[in-house]
Write a structure and sequence with these properties.
The protein is mainly α. Helices cover about 45% and strands about 10% of the residues. A two-stranded antiparallel ribbon has the order 1-2. Strand 1 and strand 2 form a beta hairpin. The longest helix is centred in the C-terminal third of the chain and has 22 residues.
Length: about 150
């Protein structure tokens, strides 16, 4: 059995855990730097047989800058040790800023769900006096939280 290789393809064995198929001829392959460092000169790296080997050798990472709702910039470095790190979940896992945003989003979703499904709350919001009393209670809680920071 002869091994054949083509541009854009990796050897795929039937027992491989991370099988990557050859790139079809009607596709375009984009190649990008794995790090922000400028290469001094091209280098040929031999012996990288798996995707894990490539990640271990190049240790891809990127510096990102986030802006919060107050306009304050927050800098973080994201690193990638496997393909899963490139997805939304993988990136969020390693970013404190994105974790905080995700938690905040989850809280808003829960509040919206309560507003839609909680009949007692819906009734209270429809009554102007009950709504005002609820708002005053919330303001008092916020004041208490701010004072205890």
């Amino acid at each position: 059995m002869s091994d054949t290789y083509g541009i854009g393809g990796n050897e795929v064995k039937s027992d491989a855990a991370e099988a990557i198929q050859d790139i079809p001829q009607n596709r375009t392959l984009f190649v990008e730097k794995l790090t922000q460092d400028q290469p001094i000169k091209p280098e040929v790296v031999k012996g990288l047989k798996t995707i894990d080997d490539v990640f271990e050798h190049y240790k891809p990472n990127v510096d990102v800058e986030f802006e919060d709702s107050d306009g304050v910039n927050k800098k973080e470095n994201l690193s990638f040790s496997n393909l899963g790190d490139y997805g939304a979940i993988g990136i969020t896992k390693q970013s404190k800023f994105l974790k905080d945003l995700s938690t905040e989003k989850d809280q808003y979703v829960k509040i919206a769900k309560q507003l839609k499904t909680n009949k007692i709350l819906k009734t209270a919001l429809e009554n102007p006096e009950a709504k005002q009393a609820l708002l005053e209670s919330i303001r008092a809680l916020l004041t208490e939280i701010e004072e205890n920071k």
